[in-house]
Amino acid sequence: PDLPFPFPVVAKPASSAAYHYADFPGKRKVYFPNCRSELEKVLRTVCSGGYRGKFLIQEYLPGDDTAMRILTTYSDRTGKVRFAAFGQTLLEDHGAMGIGNPVAIVTRRGKEEVEQAVRLLETVGYTGFANFDIRVDPRTGKHCFLEVNTRLGRSNYYVTASGMNIARLVVEKWNDGGSDCMLNRNEVFWHHVPAQVAFTYTEDKALVEHARQLKAEGKEACSLLYKPDLAWNPVRYACVLEQLRRQFKKFKTYYPKQH
Question: Cα separation of 71 and 113, whole Å?
């Protein structure tokens, strides 16, 4: 019999680059099959759309968006980790092709998680930027490393917002003979959607209040609202504002809940 899986699972293509070119109705970034037949149906559909890469199947850990953590690191050409920026997700994208992408983050220190990532990266001799997805399992309190991307993440501006110029890392820290690891210690509220959207849909209201306080203190950054870029072009400014406005409708559609 086609029994349900013994625990919830999440399935997704291992190569987002290759999956980008797959084309089929109902395409999603990730899938949540409940049993073997549903998983097989997903695989057949994805393959029929042209995807030929590997597929990842993992246990789905419970919890809302605020259970997610993000970590960005930079390793020099000798394999030494020279910089790390850790953060807690407030809110993720909930659209079909964007689900799971952070749209609001508060930076944290995350010393223990950074130490674990450093051990992994330096053991394998990794070089360059790495981006970790980490989730706190509410049943155990443990930080589970879900994956590491061998590149910067799309939400990487949270690193810049916290005070670290990533271009400077490449220029100054690639081969300077040092071995120190700079751990970001600045708290900042980064968001790619209007702050009010993040405040409305974030489940952890204590975290919301903390983000509000950072915003009130001027410790805030939005990727799209870069003043030097917008000041000279009113049309671009209007387009950015419209894009932000549409986020209210998007979250009302894809993440209605009780909000």
Answer: 8
Q: What is the pLDDT along the chain (259 residues), one digit of tens a residue?
A: 688 999 999 999 999 889 999 999 999 999 999 999 999 999 999 999 999 999 999 999 999 999 999 999 999 888 999 999 999 999 999 988 888 899 999 999 888 999 999 999 999 999 999 999 999 999 999 999 999 999 998 899 999 999 888 888 777 766 677 778 888 889 999 999 999 999 999 999 999 999 999 999 999 999 898 888 777 888 888 999 999 999 999 999 998 865 5
Q: Supply 249's token pair.
A: 């409708």
Q: In a 10 Å sphere around its CB, with 0-12 CB exposed, 13-18 middle and 19+ buried, how is residue 43 labelled?
A: middle
